[in-house]
TrEMBL record:
Top-level lineage group: Bacteria
Quaternary structure note: The glycine cleavage system is composed of four proteins: P, T, L and H.
This protein's name: Aminomethyltransferase
Location of the Aminomethyltransferase C-terminal domain: 290-367
Catalysed reactions, semicolon-separated: N(6)-[(R)-S(8)-aminomethyldihydrolipoyl]-L-lysyl-[protein] + (6S)-5,6,7,8-tetrahydrofolate = N(6)-[(R)-dihydrolipoyl]-L-lysyl-[protein] + (6R)-5,10-methylene-5,6,7,8-tetrahydrofolate + NH4(+)
InterPro entries found in the cross-reference section: GcvT, GcvT/YgfZ/DmdA, GcvT/YgfZ_C, GcvT_bac, GcvT_C, GCVT_N, TrmE/GcvT-like
PANTHER family: AMINOMETHYLTRANSFERASE, AMINOMETHYLTRANSFERASE, MITOCHONDRIAL
GCVT N-terminal domain boundaries: 10-270
Bilayer-spanning residue ranges: none
Keywords: Aminotransferase, Transferase
Enzyme Commission code(s) on record: 2.1.2.10
Annotated function: The glycine cleavage system catalyzes the degradation of glycine.
Length: 371
């Protein structure tokens, strides 16, 4: 049996704009509104507007909030300053990755955790199970919260049109991986300077009741700056150019942080016995059996997820994500391979449905914006 995909509060807005939809993590989400290449380029050159309301939002508060998160997640959340954010992972007892997520510290005893769409119920259930013995309150606010992202070099200018003059400095001076309450188009919003595109930009958390008004205000303010709505197709090509992992492709319960290139995210210095610590401590000194690398193609054809990576005729891994890069003009891919072949400059090949094509190992990200 198949369940009906869920709709975000903004679904009618997307339909009115002529979006093509796709099922993503159980949600009916806009794949593109017109040309996915135009949407990709708009984010790189001007700005794109994304509906990310399928993502989860879990509020953790109370005297033990920091200690609880240090036990539930692999990172050290206790050292995060109020108003800042941290990328982290939630792992199982064997060290496998349940999800990657961002946590915002909103107060001394208050955090907002943002898991991925399809994993949000799982993370909420894990939090509930791991909260035993801690003085914390955990509230899953996912169903009541919308998330809109403005990404691209014109993001600051667009927001300046909608926030009061006295808050322009908050927007301009906000550091990467920071958040603050701001008034946008007369609406109270949690504004975060985070994103998944490799560009400067912001993510705006707002109650569902205000989402459509905020969406329309941002579209209107962005008209003179080249902003257009962008779907999941552009979001995926943008994040791949930026070398950012996607859960279900680069990350899964079968992969530890070390194999995903995320070893530095794990804090072994903190005192808490976080879930998965023993398994990860046992593995951190051992060489991983596979590593995540970037690949660039010499031809025009792109490797796709699941395609074999070859050294000669021997399969030494597989592509996890791959497609032609709209910005760079050649095929790029992330691949999980044998560490013996991971040195940048190593020539390998990808089996493109029976036809090997040359690819070269490179450092990621493939694209880095000018500062």
């Amino acid at each position: 049996m198949t369940s009906t995909p869920r709709h975000t509060t903004l679904h009618p807005e997307h339909a009115e704009l002529g979006a093509s939809f796709t099922d993503f993590g159980g949600w009916d989400m806009p794949l593109k509104y017109g040309s996915e290449l135009a949407e990709h380029r708009a984010v790189r050159e001007a700005a794109g507007l994304f509906d990310l309301s399928h993502m989860g939002e879990i509020r953790v508060s109370g005297p033990d909030a920091a200690a609880f998160l240090n036990t539930a997640l692999v990172g050290n959340l206790a050292v995060v300053a109020v108003g800042r954010a941290k990328y982290s992972l939630i792992c199982d007892a064997d060290g496998g990755i349940i999800d990657d997520l961002i946590t915002y510290r909103l107060g001394d005893e208050e955090f907002l955790v943002v898991p991925n769409a399809g994993n949000a119920p799982t993370v909420a259930a894990e939090f509930a199970a791991r909260a035993a013995g801690f003085d914390v309150t955990i509230v899953d606010e996912s169903a009541d919260t919308s998330l809109i992202a403005v990404q691209g070099p014109a993001s600051v200018a667009i927001l300046h049109q909608l926030v009061p003059a006295e808050q322009h400095g908050v927007v301009t001076n906000m550091k990467y991986y920071s958040a603050a309450p701001v008034t946008v188009a007369g609406l109270e919003v949690l504004l975060a300077r985070t994103g998944y595109t490799g560009e400067d930009g912001f993510e705006l958390y707002v109650p569902n009741a205000s989402a459509a008004e905020l969406w329309r205000a941002l579209l209107g303010a962005g008209e003179g700056h080249g902003l257009i709505p962008a779907g999941l197709a552009a979001r995926d090509s943008l994040r791949l150019e930026a070398g950012m992992p996607l859960y279900g492709n680069e990350l899964s319960r079968d992969i530890t942080p070390f194999e995903a290139g995320l070893g530095p995210v794990v804090s072994f210095k903190k005192d808490e016995q976080f879930v998965g610590r023993a398994a990860l401590e046992a593995r951190r000194e051992a060489a991983p059996t596979r590593v995540l690398v970037g690949l660039v193609g010499a031809g025009r054809r792109a490797g796709r997820a699941g395609y074999p990576v070859l050294a000669g005729e021997q399969q030494i891994g597989e592509v996890t994500s791959g497609q032609p890069s709209p910005t760079l003009g050649y095929p790029i891919a992330l691949a999980s391979i044998d560490p013996a072949y991971a040195e940048p400059g190593t020539e390998l090949s990808v089996d493109l449905r029976g036809k090997p094509e040359t690819f070269t190992v490179v450092k990621t990200p493939f694209y880095r914006r000018a500062q």
